[in-house]
Structure formats: structure tokens, C-alpha cells
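Homework help board

Subject: predicted structure for assignment chain

Our instructor gave us this sequence and asked us to write out the predicted structure in C-alpha cell form, then describe one feature. I got the C-alpha cells but I'm not sure how to describe them. Can anyone check?
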Amino acid sequence: MHAELALDARASLGEAALWHDGRLLWVDIDAGTVNRFDPTRGTPESWSLGQMVGTVVPRACGGFIVGAQRGVGVFDPLTAQFKILADPAGGRPEMRCNDGKCDPRGRLFVGTIGIRKPRPPGALYRVDPDLRVTCVVEGTGTANGLAWSLDRRTMYFIDTPTRAVSAFDYDEATGRISGRREVVRFGDDEPGRPDGMTVDEAGRLWVALYEGGAVVCCDPATGAIVERIQVPASRTTSCAFGGADLGDLFVTTGLHPDEPGSGGLFVARPGVRGVPAFAFAG
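My C-alpha cell output:
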């Protein structure tokens, strides 16, 4: 199966795809923009925050929550105003927010990463609706993909340098995670490195492979790769199900000088639907 170009966005480093309110949300990390795309009308929108941006999620009471270079904040697309609410990195200027998503109760899980190489260790944090910040995984290399099982008892997480998808026991009532174990391992013969991730209606995980030019579908029960979508851009970063029936898989990519269409949004119809994304409850 092959993905086709949906929007020639020419993003430096597209990331954090998420379907909300009939449109695709995503960010360009290096350009510092929050973006929204209506595939039905073919109309893109973009807002510059003036700093690196790692992730964007909807806010239940309106607007978006954005994980950016200086912390987590609320962004109003009507006024283009961005206000920092919490700083998981604790004011460390060498760190920034990276990928993140909300859990079923509207808590934001977001990772931090060093801005320059060699990167200092980052971490995965939980930001509760009342803005309390809790470190839940220490010593991460590149905190990336997040997803929750359909029964809401397991949280999946990708720390890219580990070349694996980890699973945690997840307590929906408290947001606590425990019992980390590996459920999918990407061998050295698998091109690319695991990056962003989403889940489908069958509970399978779809993982974007950075520098692998693909999104693969993995069965977390067996660890097997059961399907592959080729993307004509090697720097494949994240994926999200969208469209009217949640049957379109949208894929973000990063720019490569030798690849026409790279940095664009791609789309495929894998024959399975996704599940709605969760919004921040604060």
C-alpha cells in the first residue's frame, strides 16, 4: 500500500498529527508553527508561535493546548495568542517539549528533548487538568509516540532510541502508569526508527518510521508487523486517522532536499478506522 500526497506543505519537520473537528492538526517543529488542514476543501491554515513547537492537542473548552520550546500553553486560533501555563522542563533553556497526547481523562502526557546534540536526557511528563506536572518516565532519549488501548488499561509509548514500543499498566482514574515492558521490537534490519504512533479500532498500533519512509501496523499482542504503508518521503514522523469515517490515515513528514513532496502531508486508506482523539480537560 502506498500513501499519496494530500498537501505539499514543505514543512521543515512536520509532527504530531491529530484529527479534530473535521480537520487535521499538526505542527512544524523547526518552523514553530501550529497548522490545520481541511482535506475536503483543500485549505491549510498556519499560525507561528515564534518558538519551536512539539505537539498540539484540542482543549475541551476551546482552542488548543500546545507543547512548545518554553513549555505547555493554551493557544487561541481566533486571536493567535499563546500563553504558557506550565513548564515540564523546569525552566531549562536547553530542553523543549516534543510529542504528546491526551489520555482518556484529558490529561496531557508530553515528553521533553534536548534542543542541541549531544542531547541531555529528557523525560515523559503528565500534565493534569489543574496544571500539576508529574514526571512519569525519566531518562528518555527522544520521547515520541503515545496511544492507549481500547479498554483503557494500557498506555503505549515510544522512546525512539530504544527502537521499541513500550507498554505500561494504566490507571484511568489516577493517570498513573507502571509495569513497563516491551511489546514491539524493531530490529536492526527494519529501515528507520519508530516515531509517532496511533491506534485503530481493532487495537492495533500504527507507527511512523523516521528515515524509513513508511508507516507500519503492529499487533501489540504478538509484536508482529502485520501491514506496511510506503510513504514517498523518508522522514516519516507521525500518523493519525481522520476523514468523515476516520478511515483515512494522514502522515506527516520532514523535508529532504532530494525528495519531491517531502515535508508534505500524505494520506492512505488502509481499510480500517481509527478512534477519536482525546482533548485536554483543563
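Reply (TA_rk): Your C-alpha cells look well-formed. For the description, you could write something like this. The chain has a mean pLDDT of 97. That's the kind of observation they're looking for.
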